[in-house]
Amino acid sequence: MSLSSTPPSSESSHSSPPALPDLAAVPEGMDETAWLDVIHKMDEVYQQLVRDEIALEEKNAQLEQSQQFILSLLSSMSDVLVACDSQGRIEETNAALCELVGRDEASLRGSSALDLLADEDSVQRLREVLGTWRPSRAGAVLEIQLRDAQGHSVPVDLNCTPRRNASARVVGYVFVGRPMGEIKRAYQELQRAHEALKQAQQQLLHSEKMASLGRLVAGVAHELNNPISFVLGNVHALKKYTDRMATYLQAVHAGEPPALLADLRQRLRIDHALSDLPSLIEGTLEGAQRTTDIVNGLKRFSVMDREEREPVDLNAVIERAIHWVRKGTAPGFAIHWVPQPRCLVRASAGQLLQVVMNLIQNAYDAASAIDPQPELWITLTHTDREATITLRDNGPGIPPEHMGRLFDPFFTTKPVGKGTGLGLSISFGTIEQHGGRLVAANAPEGGAVFSVTLPLLNPLAPASS
Q1: CA 316 remoteness from chain centre
Q2: How far apart are CA 355 and CA 101, in angstroms?
């Protein structure tokens, strides 16, 4: 009877198999079956040894991989890191700290963390941490000064956390911090970007206002023509009366006879001119004042906003917006609006006027595209603390696929040259800056509905509402 044992090829590369006993050399007093069991046991032990060796190599490879991963993390950290024992002796650092202080890791290891500090106050703070501080798991934050490679002080915001062993005993500390210079630079860059964004927003707002102003030019020209024509006619009449008065006064100063003066007075209609002068002057002043009001209104609308907030009556804003849109591009727009009791909010009148004008103009553009008789219903309501302007048109409404993008900058469904896509986006931002909300929806009876909600200047008591 013969028996051979061949170890697996994958295991034979790790160690040579031991020489198995020869079956023919069975010891005296032991039968062949017992000797065969001994051989099998030796083979099993060898196989287990090979498996243990493979597992050990795998564990070593995993440990090496973990160490490489930790080292790569430490070397790639931009924050400085110091791990020290309970006495403050440095046990581990990272590349960021070595670069900052101008020393290599070997020279830092074993030295005191206090040697890295630039002033006595920082030394005292760190000593308190190392000496009397009873650390919590969350740690603490210190502001210290590190000495860099050139000997200059570098402010560092340092996070200090305890390092514990398996029995939860504190055996050291870990300090992680970022030089404040980087944070300050990042903050300054963020501030510059914010200022640039604000300036761009103001420019976009002004551009949209000028585009709205351009749509109003025709109506403004007609609006100015009436008082100017009235003033011009009155001035011509005043010039004619002035010439008559000068002729009559010359005769008076020349000493003409009373009969001749009376005849001249009647022919020149001096009495009629004198009675007509007050109304001519009053009409001229009224026409000039109307012209001034129109020009001032345009100036208020076109100038860059200073974001000054003042009490504003929403009724006046709505009526002025209706007036300007009708005078500009929508003279035949049927707008249903009934003024309500005085409703005050704290806002920029010019900005609110632009928002309401934009919503009315959009309603006209949408409704007139499908209906020869566009209509708009405007209501003003309020609760105890808020006022809401609701605008509903008889247009096609808002497609569901556009609802989510309605207030995105530069999104527009109008043809090229008819819209910039900024009106609703700017209006949304303006109302949000005033502490309010701008919401769009579709009315059950058809058409789009826009609601502008703003906080009241003097919130009403619940009983009074």
Answers
A1: 31
A2: 57
C-alpha triplet 369, 374, 375: angle, nearest 5°: 140
- Alpha-carbon torsion (65, 67, 70, 72), positive or negative: negative
Q: How many CB atoms lie within 10 A of CB 427?
A: 25
Q: What are 300-336's pLDDT values in tens digits?
A: 555 445 557 889 999 999 998 888 788 766 778 899 9
Predicted pLDDT of residue 455? 93
Question: 29, exposed or middle or buried, with CB in 10 Å at 0-12, 13-18, 19+?
Answer: exposed
Eight-class DSSP state of 193: H
- The whole-angstrom separation of Cα 114 and Cα 102 is 16
* Residue 346 near residue 314, CB atoms below 8 Å: no
Chain segment 336-370, per-residue pLDDT in tens: 999 999 999 999 887 888 889 889 988 998 888 88
- Report how far residue 95's alpha carbon sits from residue 105's, in angstroms, rounded to the nearest whole number: 8
Q: What distance in Å separates the CA atoms of residue 423 and residue 360, rounded to the nearest whole number?
A: 11
Name which of 35-44, 105-114, 381-390 the model is least confident about.
35-44
Stated as kind and residue range, the H or E segment containing 452 is strand 448-455
**b/e per residue, 251-263, with b = 16+ CB within 10 A?**
beeeeeeeeebee
The DSSP bridge partners found for residue 147 are 153
Instruction: Report yes or no: 322 and 337 within 8 Å, Cβ to Cβ.
Output: yes
pTM of the model: 0.43
What pLDDT does residue 323 have? 82
Q: Which residue has the tokens 């010019």?
A: 350
What DSSP letter does each residue of 54-66 carry, written as one string?
A: HHHHHHHHHHHHH
Sign of the CA dihedral with 130 first, then 133, 135, and 138 last: negative
Percent of the chain residues past pLDDT 90, beyond the cut: 12
Report how far apart, in Å, the C-alpha atoms of 410 and of each of 17, 23, 416, 426 are: 79, 93, 12, 10
**Contacts (Cβ under 8 Å, ≥6 apart) of 70:** none
Residue-by-residue DSSP string for 68-123: HHHHHHHHH-SSEEEEEETT-BEEEE-HHHHHHHT--HHHHTTSBGGGGBSSHHHH
Cβ–Cβ < 8 Å for 244, 273: yes
Rg value, the chain, Cα: 46
- In our burial notation (b when 16+ CB lie closer than 10 A, e otherwise), range 326-365 reads bbbbbeebebebeeeeebebebbbbbbbbbbbbbbbbbbb
